[in-house]
Input
Amino acid sequence: MAAAIAVGLTVAWLLLARKAISLVLRAKAAGRLSSNEARTQLLERPFAEFLERSGVFEKAQLPLSGYHAKQVVLHGTEWRLDDTKRLLAAAAGGGYAALTASALLAWLSGETVILTIGALVGCLLPVRRFTEAGALVIRRKQAILLELPETLSKLMLLVGAGETVQQAFMRCVDGKDAESHPLYKEWAKVVRSLRNGESFGTSIERFNRSCAVQEVSVFTTVLLLNYRRGGEHFVLALRELNYSLWEKRKAVARSKGEEASSKLVFPLVGILLVLMVLVAAPALLLMS
Output
């Protein structure tokens, strides 16, 4: 049975990937693709075409739209629907490859359990894409909420010291790693657009859409309403907002601490079981 499944899956992949194989081989010969990119293309292209032609994407428009919205939040407004479809096709290709590899191993070893495990892994890989996206969006929001009060305090301090709102906004990312943190990444985009001559209002509105966090939306609204006034009026307008943001930061830090402590329960239980075995084993051996 495992042999028939392995041969059938391999032949089916070869039929699906005929066009992709020729394209990848030509690109590889021309030096346009690395080995890793070639493997990705061989998994992604056949299943992207299959899912598109079979109408799976069209029938699953609602979950696909929700997943695409999460990817836009994670990658930015330049992320397209075709990029989301390629991600899902790559996940389907990875699940198919896991199922095929498990069938081959089951055939060679004669153990059908391997085939069952491979089928479970092959089904879980595409599902994991959906669940992982939601977790990444939540983690991104928490990261923004943790850094926003501190950045807002710096902005208030600079404006209170005599800087204009626009200059203070541009100086808030000085010394920050704009590539590793979502808030500073979007903040740095605003700074670049301001230096290129774009208006402050347009840049801040794009910043609000890119962050896609309610607290950032409140901050940008207050900023746009009061940035022309500057000085003491601007600081007073942001002080109350900053207080509420610090409270939310405490709540997020508290929830992350509780989450970390709950994750420690399972290792501690495992260590306890190991200690019980180590303590009880000599006594049982002596009794026998």
Observations:
- The CA atoms of residues 116 and 216 lie 47 Å apart.
